[in-house]
Amino acid sequence: MKRRTFVKLSLLSPLFLKTACIQQKGGRIHRYLNADSRRFEMLEVSGSYYDIGYSSGKTFSKNIRSIVKSRQDWIQSLLAVTDSKSGRKYSEALLSESRKHFPHIVEEIEGIADGCGYSFDFLWMMSIQSELNAYQKENPGCSTIYYRDTKHNWLAHNEDGDTSYSGKMYILKAHPPSGVSYITLVYPGIIEGLGPSFNSYGMVETTNFIGCNKPEVGVPRYLLGRAILESKNMEEALQIATFQPRAFPWHHNLGSCQTREYVSIETLPDGTVDIRRPSGVYIHTNHTTGETTKNYKHQDLDYANTSSITRYNVLTKKKENTTQPIVNSREILNWLSSREGKPYSPCRIPEGNITGETLGTALFDLNNATMRLYKGFPAKALPNNYYTDYKF
Q1: Closest CA to 304 of 208, 206, 379
Q2: Which residue of 73, 185, 229, 347 lies most exposed, with the fewest beta carbons within 10 A?
Q3: Cβ distance 174 to 288 under 8 Å?
Q4: HEC per residue, 237-289
């Protein structure tokens, strides 16, 4: 869609209106819960991939419209790329790879588009925003701490994003045709698998953005994150995380409550991977640190050397000043609530022209197969117990 057309339509309506009427359809709605101080808005749904997408898009269309309305400059930057001949060709190449390897996820995006009333082209553009090199308009972050000793096995994660998503994030509990149900924190307008997630086979996933100045033709990162949500074991999750061809680098935190293992995996578009199974305290933010990946030549070093390194150093200092073993997960969560190094602190709060914000904090107990989600930035959520526990 041309930028000029977008501006015209956005003045008439918050939606990219479709020319044809949308039929009433969707999956079976098991329950819907409104948000409150402790809980994100939540939908539980089952059905085909299209039906799950449709129900999600329809239920949370107001959230998606709100993001589009508040992020016009960002939308324009994405449209500027897709309007160009090279950008359009690249988008089509990514879609071709995705239809070839993960057609059910493309089907789900089609459902989201129909459910919320946007065109598929628009929702696809949102799904490949990183690959379109528009991520510089984002404020990606995410800080992760893993801790394991003979008694404890915790994965803690701050989910950072643009402040426009504050109060708009939602929980989707889905029961797809594969039989692998999952619970995930969702960015409105973006396919699931980006936020902290947990499935009925005890598989856990959180992710850390890795900046990239040269994306490739392959499956976009968001689709790979979504595919992992239906993995039944660590082997399946690793196969998807290392899938080739891939378009963009990423860092996956993968956990299995079945085997009580955690795997840190950095993946690059050229097929290079770094896989670690650490114990004790392990920290990861948004730059590559593995022996095979740390010298990634297409990494966005401007971002890595400011936001990511600052948070990494703050958390590393806390690790070095802490006597182990850690007997209470609250201590790790307190690290993630730190404002040291602001505005690029582990707990991100908008400050000046830095609009990144910690939208929620997840704590997974891999020994007991539970996920706790704290709502909002942890400096406020933790002391006020703004959290909800989830368990299959």
Answers
A1: 208
A2: 73
A3: no
A4: HHHHHCCCCECCCEEEEEEECCCCEEEEEEECCCCCEEEECCCEEEEECCCCC
Judge whether 252 and 207 are in contact, CB under 8 Å.
Answer: yes
Q: Quote the tokens at residue 120.
A: 């598929």
For 327-346, how does the pLDDT look when each residue is reduced to its tens digit (9 = 90+)? 999 999 999 999 999 999 99
What is the reported pTM?
A: 0.93
Q: Which helix (H) or strand (E) holds 171?
A: strand 170-175
Q: Which structural domains are found in the chain, ordered by start?
A: 3-21+49-127 (no CATH), 135-390 (3.60.60.10)
CA gyration radius for the chain? 20
For residue 155, give the H/E element and its range.
strand 153-162
By the 10 Å C-beta count (0-12 exposed, 13-18 middle, 19+ buried), 193 is classed as buried
Q: Which parts of the chain fold into alpha helices (H)?
A: 3-12, 49-59, 61-70, 72-83, 85-101, 103-116, 120-127, 221-228, 234-241, 301-303, 309-320, 329-336, 378-381
Say what the alpha-carbon torsion angle 144, 140, 125, 62 is, to the nearest 10 degrees: 90
Pick from 87, 159, 169: which is nearest to 129 by CA?
87
**SS3 call for 108:** helix
Q: Residue 184 corresponds to which tokens in the numbers above?
A: 């995930």
Spatial CA neighbour of 146 closest among 285, 321, 305: 285
- Taking CA atoms, 290 is separated from 47, 266, 275, 314, 318, in Å, by 40, 7, 8, 19, 21
Determine the Cα–Cα distance for residues 238 and 252; give it in Å rounded to an integer: 9
Q: How far apart are CA 337 and CA 118, in angstroms?
A: 37
Residue 157: beta bridge partners? 144, 362
Q: What is the pLDDT of residues 285-315, one digit of tens each?
A: 999 999 999 999 999 888 899 899 999 999 9
